[in-house]
């Protein structure tokens, strides 16, 4: 099946405006981030990689396989979108990590930083658990958030202000399975 037909099949026949980041571009950047994280922390100190579900699950899965050191992996479920394409401004924490954060180097993995609402809600809450350090790793950053409590230390790609799907990112729970990141035509 040609690439165009395969893409249409994966999007339920809904055409994409464009592909922003290819499978190959994503894989290369994930390898680079994994190397950078490996080098950033002493191997004898505890590392906890904490993913925000659902959007970060594919990115987190690929990144942790590129980190060449022992680590713990856990998840949070936070939502600020509901079924829409714009953040509601309200963050619901549906599942909190069961891991102990105290004394560990914690990396919060996000799929996308846009309004900053999720990060600004989660980071102060995580700091109350006294981690040794707290950093953010984001697949995409739109650079539109005002007054972020912490800028991501690692960013996969700068992202335009479009609504993006694929590689874990969804629209109403669909399109997470796309191996690339693209923009759906309105």
UniProtKB/TrEMBL annotation:
Pathway: Purine metabolism; IMP biosynthesis via salvage pathway; IMP from hypoxanthine: step 1/1. Residues 23-170 form the Phosphoribosyltransferase domain. GO terms for molecular function: guanine phosphoribosyltransferase activity; hypoxanthine phosphoribosyltransferase activity; magnesium ion binding; nucleotide binding. GO terms for biological process: GMP salvage; guanine salvage; hypoxanthine metabolic process; IMP salvage; purine ribonucleoside salvage. Signal peptide: none annotated. Its cofactor is Mg(2+). GO terms for cellular component: cytosol. InterPro entries: HGPRT, Hxn_phspho_trans, PRTase-like, PRTase_dom. Keywords: Cytoplasm, Glycosyltransferase, Magnesium, Metal-binding, Nucleotide-binding, Purine salvage, Transferase. It catalyses: IMP + diphosphate = hypoxanthine + 5-phospho-alpha-D-ribose 1-diphosphate; GMP + diphosphate = guanine + 5-phospho-alpha-D-ribose 1-diphosphate. It holds the Pfam family Pribosyltran. Its EC number is 2.4.2.8. It is found in: Cytoplasm. Belongs to the purine/pyrimidine phosphoribosyltransferase family. This is Hypoxanthine phosphoribosyltransferase. It comes from Longimicrobium terrae.
């Amino acid at each position: 099946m040609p690439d165009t037909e395969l893409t249409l099949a994966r999007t339920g026949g809904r055409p994409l405006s464009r592909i922003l980041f290819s499978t190959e571009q994503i894989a290369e950047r994930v390898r680079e981030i994994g190397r950078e994280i490996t080098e950033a922390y002493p191997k004898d100190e505890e590392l906890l990689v904490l993913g925000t579900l659902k959007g970060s699950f594919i990115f987190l899965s690929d990144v942790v396989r590129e980190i060449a050191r022992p680590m713990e992996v856990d998840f949070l479920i936070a939502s600020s979108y509901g079924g829409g394409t714009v953040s509601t401004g309200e963050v619901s924490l549906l599942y909190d990590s069961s891991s102990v954060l105290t004394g560990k180097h914690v990396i919060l993995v996000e799929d996308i930083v846009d309004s900053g609402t999720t990060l600004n809600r989660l980071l102060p809450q995580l700091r109350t658990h006294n981690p040794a350090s707290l950093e953010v790793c984001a697949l995409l950053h739109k650079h539109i958030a005002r007054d972020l409590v912490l800028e991501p230390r690692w960013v996969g790609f700068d992202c335009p202000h479009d609504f993006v799907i694929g590689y874990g990112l969804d629209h109403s729970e669909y399109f997470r399975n796309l191996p690339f990141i693209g923009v759906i035509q309105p």
